[in-house]
Write a structure and sequence with these properties.
This protein is α/β, with parallel strands linked by helices and 298 residues long. It contains 13 helices and five strands. Strand 2, helix 6 and strand 3 form a beta-alpha-beta unit.
Length: 298
């Protein structure tokens, strides 16, 4: 059992716990006991995974396995989570990552991402993925068991130069994490102010996208007002909410002041591959069959 100073994945805890899911919780607990490579996690952590999978046990197990495995196998994306590290500060300087203050009419949280500095030479893609995941972990902590997320990517200011900064290993891991590990209910992804080279972007990412995520994607040459109600949007986009820059600075300060140590501590939550129980081989028969197949027979 790992002793932590802070509560994970909810900094301020999750009370009361959801009712009516004791059986599902117990099934996950029993399964995790048999998976010695997985870290010990709180009931609150288990409920985050269960909730994101609509309390389906098998899907929850798959998410837990993928989540903690990727956090171990991709240290370039899931370590060095101090928001005050220079490389993380650079990403927070050149982007805007915000949660909008108002929920959608369906009760979903709305997240918006865009560039604030269009100089592509400043972008390190792996660093951007790391900070993106840090930001999202903070949002999961604050939003608790959200009914869903609508994500908006504003591509205004993106250039082919930015595309050249994308590294395939980091992109592949990012896409796997978002689709198979990130414990949230993703409802829609809107890509707005689409650029002329959007087809090149899709050629790069489409082979990595599962059909269920593809169904959530919506593209528009217009702005975020084509994606969500105007009353949800910042004044930059014609809505009544505070400007994007102000929201970004407030939420960045929250990450740096209130979540810094929590984010650093969260690096311990990953698998220990030395403890993973190997699947048994098929034994002597498999070895014999392999040897037989390798024989050259005249």
């Amino acid at each position: 059992m790992s002793a932590t100073k802070y509560s994970h994945p909810f900094l301020n805890g999750l009370k009361p716990l959801p009712e009516g899911y004791d059986d599902e919780l117990q099934q996950i607990r029993e399964w995790m006991k048999s998976q010695s490579h997985l870290p010990y996690i709180s009931d609150e952590y288990v409920f985050l995974f269960l909730h994101s999978n609509y309390y389906k046990v098998k899907e929850t197990k798959d998410t837990i396995e993928c989540y903690f495995t990727l956090r171990n196998s991709s240290p370039d994306l899931f370590s060095n989570r101090d928001p005050l590290l220079p490389k993380n500060k650079t990403i927070l300087d050149i982007t805007h990552m915000i949660a909008l203050p108002k929920l959608s009419p369906e009760g979903y949280h709305i997240l918006l991402y865009r560039l604030s500095d269009t100089d592509y030479s400043k972008l390190n893609f792996a660093d951007a993925v790391r900070v993106f995941c840090m930001f999202n972990d903070v949002k999961l902590s604050e939003d608790r068991l959200s009914e869903g997320y609508i994500v908006i990517f504003d591509m205004r200011g993106c250039s082919l130069g930015h595309l050249t900064r994308v590294t395939l290993p980091a992109l592949r891991t990012f896409m796997q994490y978002i689709q198979s590990a990130h414990p949230c209910r993703l409802k829609k992804i809107h890509v707005v102010h689409t650029v002329s080279f959007i087809n090149q972007v899709m050629c790069l990412v489409k082979p990595l996208i599962h059909s269920n995520l593809l169904n959530l994607l919506h593209f528009s040459s217009e702005g975020p007002e084509s994606a969500v109600d105007l009353e949800c949007l910042p004044e930059d986009y014609g809505g009544p909410q505070p400007p994007v820059k102000q929201l970004h600075e407030e939420q960045r300060k929250n990450m740096e002041n209130n979540y810094r140590d929590w984010l650093i501590e969260s690096e311990i939550f990953k698998v220990d591959e030395k403890k993973r129980i190997k699947k048994p081989s098929k034994g002597m028969f498999a070895s014999f069959t392999s040897s037989f197949k390798s024989l050259d027979i005249d």
